[in-house]
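Please, structure for the following, as tokens.
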Amino acid sequence: MIEENSPETQQQLSALSDKFDAKGQNLNHQLEGFVHSKPINYWDYIQTDVLLNLQVQRTLIPDEMVFIMYHQVNELFFKMILWEIEQVAYAKELTAVFFSEKLDRISRYFDMLTSSFNIMREGMQMEQYLKFRRTLSPASGFQSAQYRFIEFSSTELQNLIDSRFREDFKNMEKNKDSFYDEAFEQLYWQAAGKNFTTGEKTYTLKEFELKYKDEFIRFIKQYESLNLWSKFKTLPLADQKDATLLKAMRHYDYTVNVQWVMSHYHAALHYLNQGKEPLEATGGSDWVKYMHPKYQKRIFFPEVWSQKEREEWGQNVN
């Protein structure tokens, strides 16, 4: 029972009044609406029925359902990661403690994603996977837009350029109108969908760009000074030397760009390396070179690693 005249009730009403006044809303109208609203249930809040009806198989093969749900879970984790990154990007007073806490959260999500690849590697029958995989072509996990947003919001654009073209990128004129279009063509993951001898793009890459390229470029511009690496460099020098923060940055960088990539690589190897030559990925990419970190040489926070560590990036993992 609420005591109408209790100091606590009056304080809560005052706080509600301030809240809705600031939004130009009438508190009495909001309270009247609350009187008529119904209590919420778990299934309404989580939208369970909607969530559980998002799995639509293209075949009758049972293990395709595992494949679909696993990737949907990945996308939910990516959304959680982007939510955490956004809080760092727009923090009004960023501190080493807050930065470290957020990076630790993000790393825990990627740690779970890394270990979860056992579901893919051990959780589907080989025979079933090899039957339903061709019905997925030309779709590819390469086309995960959220994962690209994570990359763009984690580091500066130059660190996502194909290692073969980084020196050329440094000499590009940033002020010219075509800068972002040209830079986009040199992103490391273009190698998964482009023949750099002919310049021809696969259908998978063409469709991906048709849907997301404009949005990607807007996002790159938005996060130019808001990405994690750029935000780190705005911290006071004392915070940039904070041991806890540096440890969190190294853990995140290595987890995403080596451990998670290698778990993905081994899952693909398990199913696609069935003969002398690896099977082609559903998107048509040269997945062996595209996925392995020693080829990608992708490092979000280069200066927290020694020159030797950068040079040997991904070389000592199998």
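The chain has 18 helices and no strands. Residues 243-272 form the longest helix (30 residues).
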